[in-house]
Amino acid sequence: MMKSAEIRQAFLNFFQSKQHQIVASSSLVPGNDPTLLFTNAGMVQFKDVFLGDDQRNYSRATSSQRCVRAGGKHNDLENVGYTARHHTFFEMLGNFSFGDYFKRDAISFAWEFLTSEEWLGISKDKLMVTVYQEDDEAFDLWHKEMGVPVEKIVRIGDKGGRYQSDNFWSMGDTGPCGPCTEIFYDHGEDIWGGPPGSPEEDGDRFIEIWNVVFMQFNRSADGTMSPLPKPSVDTGMGLERIAAVMQNVHSNYEIDLFQYLLQATAKATNTDDMENKSLRVIADHIRSCAFLVVDGVIPSNEGRGYVLRRIVRRAIRHGHKLGQKQAFFHTLVQALVDQMGEAYPELKQQQAQIEKVLLTEEQQFEKTLDKGMAVLESELADLKAKEIPGQLVFTLYDTYGFPVDLTNDIAREREMSIDLEGYETLMEAQRQRARAAGSFKVDYNDSLDIDGDTDFTGYNKLEGSSKVVALFKEGD
Ligand code: ATP
Ligand code: MG
Ligand code: MG
Ligand code: MG
C-alpha cells in the first residue's frame, strides 16, 4: 500500500525520468498577482511563463503544489464535510510543458503513470475520461493510441450546459486557459453518483483525479481570448484523491494522512464518534489555516486575512459543536507537523508561530462564540420560518464576530437558509453610517470592514450557497 508521501515522490520521479525539472511548491500567496486570492493550482507559479512574459531554463517542469480553494473562482469551502473529495487545502501534483510537448505526450504520460505496473498500476477498467466537446484530437489519442473504449470517453462542453462540469479550464476570470481532458476513477456501484456529463455526476462515485489542460489562450478582463505564444500543457492531480485510489478507500478522509489528523482531532475534542462530520471539517481546516500562516497570512478583517479568520472560526465552531469549549485548534498543529513536516520543513520551523497565531484567534473568538450561539438558539426556538432573518445574521456578525458563511454553515446543518439580502442591506446601512460619521479612524467594532471594497470578489459573496439544497454548487 503506497503512502501519500510515496505517491508524491513517485510522481516527481516519473516526470523527472521524462526530462522534467522538479520545482518546489510556491507560496499560497501568489507573488505579484492581484487577480488571485490564493494559489489554487500548480500552474499559478508558472503563469507568466505560459504567457511568454517570463523565461526559465527548462521547458518541462513538475511539482507538488500546495493549494487553497476557499475563495475566488475556485471555492470549495462549502463542500468540505459534504463531499468525499474536496478540501480547502490540498496538494496538486502537476507536470507542465512550456511550448514543449502538447496533447499526445501529455495524455500518454498521464496514462503511463496511472496504469503501468512500474508506476501506479491502476486497473484501466476503473478509469474513464472526458474531452472537450470539439476536441477530436484528444478523443482519438485516448481511443486509438491509449486504447480507451469509446463508451468510456465523454465529450463535455463549456460551463453553462446542463450539468456543472465543463472541460474548459481557467485559473480565474483572466489569465491562461484552454480545453482540457480529465481522468475519473470509478469507486464502484455501492456509491451514489454517475459518470461525468450525467445527471448524477455530482455524486462521489466517479471521482475526478487528474485534469490535463491544453493551455492555448489568455483571457483578458474584457473576455477576449488571445492565443498564447506557444501551445502548452498544465496538469493537476489531487494527491489526496489519488492516495484514496491507491489505498483502496473511497473518501480522501480515509487516507493515511487524514486518519492521523482525524484521530488527533477526536482526541482534542474528546469525541468518540469518528464518523462525525465536524471532525472532518476541523481536520481539513487545520491544514489550510496552518499553511496560510506559514505563508505569512494573519487573521484580520479584510482580504486574505479575513478568509483565514473565517476558516479558523468555522473550525472552532465545529469544535464547540462537539462540546469542546476550550481552545483546542492550535494543538492540532503538532499532528500536522508529524504528517507533513518532512515534506514542508517551513511548517516545522514555524510551528510555534502558527500555534501562537491560532491560539490568539481562538481566545478572541471564544469570548463571543458562546454568547452568539445562545442568542442564535433562543431566536431560532421562536422562529417558524426556514430562513434565518437578515437582522440576526447581521447581529451575529457585527456583535459576536460570526462570519456570514459560519452562520450559513449552521443554517445548512439545520436545513435552513439565511436571508443574505437582508443581511447585506444592513451591512450597507452600517457602512453609510460609518462614512457619514467620518468614523474611519474609530475602531469601534472589531469585525467591521469586511465589505466588498476589496480587489477580490467571490469570497464575500455566498454565491447561492445560502440555499440549503446547493450542496454541490461550488463544484468547479
Ligand atoms: P472537482 O470537479 O472535483 O471539484 P475540479 O475540476 O474543480 O475538481 P481542477 O480545477 O481540475 O479540479 O483541479 C485539478 C485536480 O485537483 C482535480 O482533478 C482534483 O484531483 C484536485 N482537486 C481540485 N479541487 C480539489 C479540492 N478542493 N480538494 C482536493 N483536491 C482537489
Ligand atoms: Mg471538475
Ligand atoms: Mg477539473
Ligand atoms: Mg472543483
Would you write up a description of this structure?
This protein has 476 residues and is an alpha/beta fold. It has 14 helices and eleven strands. The strands form two sheets. Strands 1, 2, 3, 4, 5, 6, 7, 8 and 9 form a nine-stranded mixed beta sheet that branches. Strands 10-11 form a two-stranded parallel ribbon. Helix 12 crosses helix 14. It is globular. It starts with a helix and ends in a 40-residue tail after the last helix. 47% of the residues are buried. One magnesium ion is lined by residues 74, 475-476.
Write a concise keyword list for the protein shown above.
alpha/beta, 476 residues, 38% helix, nine-stranded mixed β-sheet, binds magnesium ion, two-stranded parallel ribbon
Secondary structure topology:
Layout: H1 4-17, E1 21-22, H2 47-51, E2 60-68, E3 89-97, H3 103-115, E4 127-132, H4 136-145, E5 153-156, E6 168-170, E7 175-186, E8 206-219, E9 225-238, H5 239-246, H6 256-268, H7 277-294, H8 303-321, H9 333-340, H10 345-349, H11 351-382, E10 387-388, H12 390-400, H13 404-413, E11 417-418, H14 420-436
Parallel strand pairs: 1-2, 4-5, 10-11
Antiparallel strand pairs: 2-3, 3-9, 4-7, 6-7, 7-8, 8-9
